[in-house]
Specification:
With 658 residues, this protein is of the alpha/beta class. Helices cover 30% and strands 21% of the residues. Strands 12-11-8-6-7-14-15-23 form an 8-stranded mixed beta sheet, with helices on both faces. A 7-stranded mixed beta sheet has the order 5-4-17-16-18-19-20, sandwiched between helices. Strand 1 (64-67) and strand 2 (75-78) form a beta hairpin. Helix 6 crosses helix 7, helix 11 crosses helix 12 (316-328) and helix 17 (537-545) packs across helix 18 (584-598). Bound molecules: adenosine-5'-triphosphate and magnesium ion (MG). One of its GO terms (cellular component) is cytosol. Residues 95-484 form the AMP-dependent synthetase/ligase domain. Its cofactor is Mg(2+). This is Acetyl-coenzyme A synthetase.
Length: 658
């Protein structure tokens, strides 16, 4: 991380935001969450979590809420036993809700399938029986390399049912990325499909698996779902069609109860800041926090809401807020296979209209893309069913928040800006809908039961109006239990910086505003140091995005002989690269705009107009690569970049001096 060279270890507080949006009295009156939750959790944290754990069916009751004696290795709900898949599926069938639709699946070409909880139970049982036939048992690892198909959900729950760990690898990753994840987890089975629909065309997927498994000694079987019916290579030694093996299985399967701390899955982080880490999650605490947060933060009413989280199942958001949280709560949800601009830029809104989606959860990058496409597109659809909106993945710029509220949320839907990480397993900091008066751009307060603080380098909490480092100072149920196979890296990465205090170091910068609300300010590694001022990338980016010509912005600090670092901004213009806004006088006007909005110290040294920004496959901007360009270095590891040619274009533009 960037070491502060001056005495000033806190972050400068540049941006101020005074708009607040109190919940309507109608929303508040029906909200799942209440202000009392904060008090209850404050008075008795463990008692609060014990109450939340009662949302689940436990075959054996636990006898201790938390065992932190071997910190940082936590045990939650000690002695308890449960089956996670039973909790997500069978329980709802037994309660008489088997006819409720669990999944409205929408294929990119327009095919669709509604899967009830009854059917989900049969599919998960068959998949579990198939995996056992293939030799998968408790504790084994299964790699799932699938796009957004119902079989991805069946496979994850089948693993959970058997006590096997899944390791879902995003379907956009290369053979090499897949291979390294298979080998790290030593997966016995890989589940994949022939191909996937992307932007209206079938694209091969199995070919990547064929290439990956040439050097994966642990893999015994490859189970292949048929989706596009395209030609595939076939290795009769280990390849099997899903429909040959799964379809003939019994749809009955008796779930076994596993220990609350039984491992549930491994998931690799996005790799925004470096080499991905294999994050390990376990069962009882994880499912408790997934169910609680999904119900409280999204205000879920399982018998009337239609929920849609647009994340890919290959990211933690897909794990906790497509599979485990919603299904534990018996929700009806949309799962969409494809891209937001197929067949046209209104696809998401057509889906909202078709299914009457009421709760919609997406990422700031998607919202900024919708803004760039224009508000006339959502205006063509009936979005009146939407009653709550969420965002996750990056700080949301206040202007993007306002656009989201106005053009998607009809000016009334509460927005929940949810901060969390693969490591935290579930939402940690977020407004509570119906309780919190929302502020555009701020995640505001830790949820009831969660404790987070903004501290300086010494671990002392900073005051209101000041910035520093975000830490989680108390263990939480869904916390990671380690990095797969690497306890040392686990301790070093998260627990060594504030070892004395026992804080979890999140790696993100944050600040308190004057009323004590938390604002996330981007990665600590990205903080800039300009003439002794520590400036967050997020605040400068938000100032740029607030300008009417700018659609997206990424800001980095590049070494500078006089100021230590100088601010270099990369912007995507609403009008595109060739537009009249891209000339020198226009970029100078943008530099002045930043100086005017947040202060002269934040005035960018240079602004480059680009057509794309380097993003991870989960849509986060990779500033470390832009810093390489700004400092004329060779560009670093691009293996988790969505489109690696973006960096070539940007480097070329930089050299030609634009
Ligand atoms: P890696 O750890 O490998 O670099 P990553 O941190 O991008 O990858 P994730 O776990 O997917 O992997 O992302 C978590 C990070 O996303 C957080 O640490 C934070 O920087 C950012 N983030 C998520 N939600 C929010 C939010 N609501 N506001 C601000 N930042 C957010
Ligand atoms: Mg991270």
């Amino acid at each position: 991380m960037t070491q502060p060279d001056g005495q000033n270890t806190t972050l400068d507080n540049l941006l101020s935001e005074n708009r607040t949006f109190a919940p309507s009295s109608e929303f508040a009156a029906q909200a799942n969450a209440t202000a009392e939750l904060y008090q209850q959790a404050e008075q008795d944290r463990e008692g609060f979590w014990a109450t939340q754990a009662a949302r689940l069916h436990w075959d054996t009751e636990w006898n201790q809420v938390l065992d932190w004696s071997d910190a940082p290795f936590a045990k939650w709900f000690v002695g308890g036993k449960l089956n996670v898949a039973y909790n997500c599926v069978d329980r709802h069938v037994e309660a008489g809700n088997g006819d409720r639709v669990a999944i409205y699946w929408e294929g990119e070409p327009g095919d669709s399938r509604a899967i009830t909880y009854n059917e989900l139970q049969r599919e998960v049982c068959k998949a579990a029986n198939a995996l056992s036939e293939l030799g998968v048992g408790t504790g084994d690892r299964v790699a799932i390399y699938l796009p957004m198909l119902p079989e991805a959900v069946f496979s994850m729950l089948a693993c959970a049912r058997l006590g096997a760990l899944h390791s879902v690898v995003f379907g956009g990753f290369s053979a090499e990325a897949l291979r390294s994840r298979i080998n790290d987890a030593e997966a016995k089975v890989v589940i994949t499909c022939d191909g996937q629909y992307r932007r209206g065309k079938p694209m091969a997927l199995k070919a990547n698996v064929d290439e990956a498994v040439t050097a994966t000694p642990s893999v015994e079987h490859v189970l292949v779902v048929q989706r596009t019916e395209q030609e595939v290579g076939w290795n009769s030694g280990h390849d099997k069609w899903w429909h040959d093996v799964v379809d003939r299985q019994s749809d009955q399967h008796t779930p076994e109860a596993f220990d609350s701390e039984h491992p549930l899955y491994i998931l690799y982080t996005s790799g925004t800041t470096g080499k991905p880490k294999g994050i390990l999650h376990t069962s009882g605490g994880y499912l408790t926090q997934a169910a609680y947060t999904h119900q409280a933060v999204f205000d879920l009413k399982p018998d009337s809401d239609v929920y849609w989280c647009t994340a890919d199942i290959g990211w933690v958001t897909g794990h906790t807020y497509i599979v485990y949280g919603p299904l534990a709560n018996g929700a009806s949800q949309v799962i969409y296979e494809g891209t937001p601009n197929t067949p046209d830029e209104g696809r998401h809104w057509a889906i909202v209209q078709k299914y009457g989606v009421s709760l919609y959860y997406t990422a700031p990058t998607t919202i900024r893309t919708f803004m760039k496409w224009g508000s006339d597109i959502p205006a063509q659809y009936d979005l009146s069913s939407l009653r709550l909106l969420g965002t996750v993945g990056e700080p949301i710029n206040p202007e993007a928040w306002m656009w989201y509220r106005e053009h998607i949320g009809n000016g009334t839907a509460p927005i929940v800006d949810t901060w969390w990480q693969t490591e935290t397993g579930a939402i940690m900091i977020s407004p509570l809908p119906g309780v919190t008066a929302a502020k555009p751009g701020s995640a505001q307060q830790p949820l009831p039961g969660i404790s987070a603080k903004v501290v300086d380098e010494e671990g002392n909490q900073v005051g209101n109006g000041q910035g520093g480092l975000l830490v989680l100072d108390k263990p939480w149920p869904a916390m990671l239990r380690g990095i797969w196979g690497d306890d040392q890296r686990f301790k070093e990465t998260y627990w060594s910086k504030f070892a004395e205090q026992g804080f979890y170091f999140a790696g993100d910068g944050a600040k308190y505003d004057e009323s004590g609300d938390i604002w996330l300010l981007g990665r600590v590694d990205d903080v800039m140091n300009v003439s002794g001022h520590r400036i967050s990338t997020t605040e400068v980016e938000s100032a740029l995005v607030a300008h009417s010509t700018v659609a997206e912005a990424a800001v980095v600090g590049a070494s500078d002989a006089t100021t230590g670092q100088g601010i270099v901004a990369f912007v995507i213009l609403r009008g595109g690269t060739g537009s009249e806004d891209s000339g020198d006088s226009a970029t100078n006007a943008l530099r002045d705009h930043v100086a005017h909005e947040i202060g002269p110290i934040a005035k960018p040294r240079q602004i480059m107009v680009v057509s794309e920004l380097p993003k991870t496959r989960s849509g986060k901007i990779m500033r470390r690569l832009l810093r390489d360009v700004a400092e004329n270095r060779e560009v670093g590891d691009v293996s988790t970049l969505a489109d690696s040619s973006v960096m070539d274009q940007i480097s070329a533009g930089m050299k030609s001096g634009s």
